[in-house]
Amino acid sequence: MSITRRGFVGSVAAALGYLSTGREVDLFAQQARPGAPGNAPRMGRSTDEYDAMAHLSSNENCWGPPENVMKAMNGAWKYSNRYGYPDGNIVQEIAKHHGVKAENVMITAGSGEVLDVVGTTFLPAGKKVLGVEPSYGSVYQHATSIKSTAIKLPLGKDYRQEIPALIKAANQRASELGFVYLCNPNNPTGLIVTKEEVKQLLDGIPQGMPVLIDEAYHHFVDDPRYATSIPYVIEGRPVIIARTFSKIAALAAMRLGYAVAPAELIQKMRPYSMGSINVLVKWGGVASLKDEAGQKEIKQRVIALRKKTTSELEAYGYECIPSETNFFMVHIGREIQPVIGEFAAKKVAVGRPFPPMTTHMRVSVGTEDEMDRFTKAFKEIFPAKGKTTAAV
Ligand SMILES: Cc1ncc(COP(=O)(O)O)c(C=O)c1O
């Protein structure tokens, strides 16, 4: 039996009661807990309102999961009344996918949980996290919530993460630090840290200092100077890689992520994780790991739509940061907060403010129709300016 996306989503939504409670539009989700879409409380907005929006605020995969992934999830309904059930060997499959052992993998409800668990584990007694700003703020917010703090360095030239500055701070303030956070590629800029720079960072910071490398957008990167940092886990360095099924795998609402790290670090972290991952997404995750061709196609589609949109904005006179992800930043030259409302009025949800880059707007890559609606809204809100010279 073939399963339509609409049919699948309908049955899941009905089962979870979402249809009766209604969904909020992204605009409201963003304000609830910036940087943590999965944790945002749901306020009552109708599904019609939600469906009418172009969702360009949370860097999701707008096309939804492929048929084989939905088929795998639907096949798992029969276990929904159980505790101990066959789970598709999700942990072993992830381990195999990365050439590591099962003891190196911890699965979580979205990679946001990995970020929280790393904070809880490695920030005891007021230890601090070191990273840059802006980055994915969830890590810093969690540190605050557990009465710790973050040392946030500014971005460097061209909005890049300055590795020498991170190394310097890690050494100078070593006794204060619990771990270093590196989002690669970075959210919200979409810029990578090159593999040489990652090596430089890991070699330059005090030995034994844990580094959390958030690779949520790994699958979208085209730049050959980038590489995953999972080989450092295999080397036994104190590196924790966070990965998610919420982005290219299109399973954001289903909540699945994982950490890959040396076994000793996983053992330290495990007591702080909830271990509450639903059976459907475990099976969906296994199918998704095998969907290389489908993900390659999504990547190409995203890159093509991103280039088309940013070229149009640049031709209209607005500079874009050259992203390697499924979102990009455009310099709008005025404060973003009221602009979010102006776009919402045109039924386009765009990214929240990312201080101190508050005159930039982060835009996720959506469907062709959503991108056309975005560009049209942009041209209604902003006047044309002289051509920029920046390359896309
Ligand atoms: C850089 C980064 N890390 C982690 C996450 C958390 O995503 P999830 O908890 O859905 O895996 C996000 C979500 O937007 C993100 O942008």
Please describe what this structure looks like:
This protein has 392 residues and is α/β, with parallel strands linked by helices. It has 2 domains: 24-65 and 292-381, Alpha-Beta Complex (Aspartate Aminotransferase, domain 1), CATH 3.90.1150.10; 69-289, Aspartate Aminotransferase, domain 2, CATH 3.40.640. It is 40% helix and 13% strand. It has 16 helices and 11 strands. The protein has helices at 5-16, 18-21, 26-32, 47-52, 67-74, 90-98, 111-122, 138-145, 163-172, 195-204, 230-235, 263-269, 279-289, 292-315, 336-345, 368-381, and strands spanning 54-56, 105-108, 128-133, 150-154, 177-183, 211-214, 239-244, 257-260, 327-331, 348-350, 360-364. It has a 7-stranded mixed sheet with strand order 2-8-7-6-5-3-4, with helices on both faces. It has a two-stranded parallel ribbon with strand order 1-10. Strands 9-11 form a two-stranded antiparallel ribbon. Strand 6, helix 11 (230-235) and strand 7 (239-244) form a beta-alpha-beta unit. Helix 7 (111-122) packs across helix 8, helix 9 runs parallel beside helix 10 (195-204) and helix 14 (292-315) runs parallel beside helix 16. The protein is globular. Mean pLDDT is 90; it is low at 1-35. The structure holds pyridoxal-5'-phosphate. Pyridoxal-5'-phosphate (PLP) is lined by residues 37-38, 59, 110-112, 136, 183, 187, 214, 216, 244, 246, 252, 257.
List the main descriptive attributes of the protein structure presented here.
392 residues, alpha/beta, Aspartate Aminotransferase, domain 1, Aspartate Aminotransferase, domain 2, seven-stranded mixed β-sheet, two-stranded parallel ribbon, 40% helix, globular, disordered N terminus
